[in-house]
Amino acid sequence: MVLIGQTGTCEAVVADTDTGTATTPSGTVDFSASSTAVEFSGTPVCALSSAGSCQITFAFSAFGPETITASYDGDSSHATSSATQQIEVTACFGCGFRFCRVPRVIGKPLTHAKQILRHSGCRPGRISHAYSKRIRKGRVISERPKPGKVIGPNAWPKHKIHLVVSRGEA
Question: How confident is the model over 131-165, as pLDDT tens digits?
């Protein structure tokens, strides 16, 4: 299990499984993730060391299950191979990190929406206005990012939620 915003490492070890004379695999390993919520530090490619291993550093920006895949391109003596690792990413509210789980404030009066945002660890951002036939004047029409998104500690103090507030009917 990994927490949102914390860095972690993935290590790839390529072993010589041939029954003949042992040789150390060489070349590179490419890492990929199942979503864009994985942020690799630098390039997600590493060169194998003389021990046949390498590692990369990453962080997650959303919670839920993630899959990291390591793919070895092979060399003149070793075949290509790949492996996957399932990682559960979680948010730790109240652990000293600053997180913001975007609450749903659509339809709420602006003053109430701001209170709800602050209570959720978020901050009101840019407030703009638009006409709406469906939402009464002074109430929130839309918010960005979308409700339910968790913004991790690397974004603090940028947990700003941009709101569009109704001017009423045109």
Answer: 999 999 999 999 998 888 877 655 545 678 999 99
Pick from 111, 168, 170: which is nearest to 141 by CA? 168
Which residues pair with residue 130 across a beta bridge? 166
Domain count, the chain: 2
- C-alpha angle with apex 103: 134 to 146, nearest 5 degrees? 70
What are the pLDDT digits (tens) for 112-140?
999 988 877 788 889 999 999 999 999 99
- What are the strands, taking DSSP E only, across the chain? 2-3, 7-13, 28-33, 38-40, 45-47, 53-60, 64-72, 81-90, 100-101, 123-130, 140-144, 150-151, 160-166
Q: Are 25 and 79 found together in one domain?
A: yes
Are residues 25 and 66 located together in one domain of the fold?
yes
pTM of the model: 0.54
CB contact at 8 A, 106 and 162: no
Pseudo-torsion of CA 83, 58, 36, 2, nearest 10°?
80
